[in-house]
Write a structure and sequence with these properties.
heterodimer; A: 217 residues; alpha/beta; 11 strands; B: 376 residues; five-stranded mixed sheet; binds zinc ion
Chain lengths: 217, 376
């Protein structure tokens, strides 16, 4: 097994290679503005570090968000197209699950990432491998009661200490964690879902009521 | 003549607006033109919603690539390059296509060519009428652009002669269709009504045609307001709006100015070929009037079939094939989508290539792109 994992759903552009046992190469850069430019060179670097070519990969793992749409799509489109060109399966893993896995906690906690517009993407976990709620997008103050007293990880938690007083690292998702989680699930015979984006919000668009009258009154 | 198998086989990807286009071209021969459009999803908004378009591109891309390769009857392994629209266009929409093209080229081990959307609109005519004459004057008219361009080599030299100073021609069609309650997009429906109307019924203004106005620039905003006022006056007086005559007279005002300026530019520059591209080039009256005026002026008119005039992947593949044929530098793996890629840059060559255009300019450009936050 050789998995190429990538995630662009948060400010991190992160790529890792996993040989079924361990992560053999990885790269993470945090730059919210340049997902499109950074991702492919990162893939190239990670493969070079491992001394492998892309056609050695047997499966692709892509973080499906939730995350700001433009960046999220860079990773998903790249993963989809790699899958097409190589004829290998593309697996989707929720980005919050990757963060939860990296948190390595055995009791209840919360994962929250920055959703912009003063909101967070978040979910509750029973432990690092068990998500209790569907990923959601909310204002921190509106979920304060539901996350009260729980430790929290992720940039969204660190950003709002009033709601998440027990926030700590990891701040960003890593493709290495995503790859380990996917490898574990695949080894256990679990099916991973197709890599469809978790947008959680509708596109901003308004149906125009009528055209603006131009005749002066 | 060389065996056509020697000509470059290129797959082109276009996502600058609401069409997910994938085309396959061998040299100047069209092999496939697969398009998935999200236009129906935008109709109720009365215009293209960027986020709706971007989401649709992501869903449509892989099936559309598959369809194009099947239609062309070629294997991805045999491609000589992957071309993609790098700009101009909607930033988020462009980025989906650029991401797909980079991943596809990288996975297949093929060179990547980020190309200019406007130059592609010109180059597509090679698929219909053979190699472009050099120089060629091009009138590009669509919902997103209205410009007059002069090119002596479509891979390296595209000069802007004039452009709209306000609305694009296609936008004017959309807005008037909305005032007339004809729905979106406006171009085809106005064309249809206009066929049964009198183009001389109402004398609508011809923008920027005075003696001191810029000779090759366009303006459609004043026309749009004049038409809307005329319609509102009719409605205010309780009279029925003659939709056919309004459509015909409005359309005539648009195509009159477009063709007059294009022919004048050809004459002034001593160019004996005019090509017309972009979605509005599908307009039947524009085609007829351009033909008449070009004939009278001794200019040969080239207009591709309507399906090649609207946004599509074949036009991107056509320009990509020309880039390969002329040995132009491939793009780098960090190629970005550039929503305001200047028309003077037919493609985005890699930085380390000796023939790359001035580095200072390329550098400025990186800065310009970075201002835009691609994260949200
Ligand atoms: Zn166009």
């Amino acid at each position: 097994m050789l998995l190429l994992a990538l995630d662009t759903a948060t400010p991190a552009v992160t790529v890792a290679l996993h040989d079924g046992t361990d992560v053999i190469a990885s790269s993470s850069q945090v730059d919210a503005r340049r997902h499109g430019e950074l991702l492919l060179p990162a893939v190239d670097r990670v493969l070079a570090e491992a001394g492998l070519r892309l056609d050695a990969v047997t499966g692709i793992v892509a973080g499906t968000g939730p995350g700001p749409y433009t960046g999220l799509r860079v990773g998903l489109m790249t993963a989809d197209t790699f899958g097409l060109a190589l004829g290998v399966p593309v697996h989707g893993v929720c980005t919050l699950d990757g963060l939860a896995y990296a948190a390595d906690l055995e009791d209840s906690f919360v994962v929250a990432t920055d959703a912009r517009r003063k909101e967070v993407y978040w979910a509750r976990y029973a432990d690092s491998r068990t998500r209790l709620t569907d990923p959601a997008v909310d204002r921190p103050a509106d979920i304060a009661e539901r996350v009260a007293g729980l430790p929290a990880v992720g940039a969204g938690a660190l950003l709002y200490p009033d709601t998440f007083p027990k926030a700590h690292e990891p701040e960003h998702v890593s493709a290495a964690a995503l790859a380990c989680l996917a490898a574990e699930k695949l080894a256990a015979g679990e099916d991973l879902p197709a890599p469809r984006p978790l947008y959680l919000r509708r596109p901003d668009a308004q149906v125009p009521k009528n055209y603006k009258v131009v005749t002066p009154k | 003549m060389a065996d056509s198998r020697d000509e470059p086989l290129v797959l082109g990807i276009e996502t600058s607006c609401d069409e997910t286009g994938v085309g396959v071209v061998r040299g100047t021969t069209l092999l496939a033109d697969a398009v998935a459009s999200s236009v129906d999803e935008h109709a109720r908004f009365g215009g293209v919603v960027p986020e709706v378009a971007s989401r649709a591109h992501l869903e449509a891309m892989v099936p559309t690539i598959d369809r194009a390769l099947k239609e062309a009857g070629v294997s991805a392994r045999d491609l000589d390059g992957i071309a993609v629209t790098a700009g101009p266009g909607l930033a988020g929409a462009l980025l989906v296509g650029v991401s797909a093209a980079k991943a596809y080229a990288y996975a297949l081990g093929k060179p990547l060519y980020g190309v200019n959307h406007l130059a592609s609109h010109i180059c597509v005519d090679q698929l219909e009428h053979g190699p472009l004459p050099e120089p060629t004057m091009a009138l590009l008219v669509s919902g997103g652009h209205s410009s007059l361009l002069l090119s002596s080599d479509i891979t390296s030299d595209v000069r802007p002669m004039g452009a709209t100073i306000d609305d694009a021609a296609g936008e004017a069609f959309d807005k008037i269709a909305r005032v007339l309650n004809l729905g979106f997009p406006g171009g085809p429906v106005i064309d249809r009504y206009a066929r049964e109307g009198d183009p001389k019924a109402i004398a609508f203004p011809r923008g920027l045609t005075g003696p001191r106005d810029a000779a090759y620039d366009f303006s459609f905003s004043g026309l749009k307001t004049a038409v809307a006022r005329w319609i509102e006056a009719k409605r205010a007086a309780g009279e029925e709006v003659p939709v056919r005559d309004v459509s015909a007279s409005f359309q005539e005002a648009v195509v009159d100015v477009l063709t007059r300026k294009a022919v004048r530019a050809c004459k002034d520059e001593g160019v004996d070929h005019l090509m017309i591209g972009g979605g509005v080039a599908a307009n039947s009256r524009l085609r007829v009037l351009a033909q008449e005026r070009c004939e009278a002026a001794g200019i040969r008119l080239r207009v591709p079939r309507p399906k090649l005039c609207t946004d599509n992947g074949a036009m991107v593949a056509a320009l990509g094939a020309e880039m390969v044929a002329r040995g132009r530098a491939a793009s780098d793996w960090d190629l970005s989508a550039d929503s305001s890629l200047p028309v003077t840059e037919p493609h985005v060559p890699g930085r380390d290539h000796p023939h790359a255009p001035s580095h200072t300019h390329a550098h400025d450009h990186v800065h310009e792109v970075s201002k835009e936050n691609l994260y949200s």
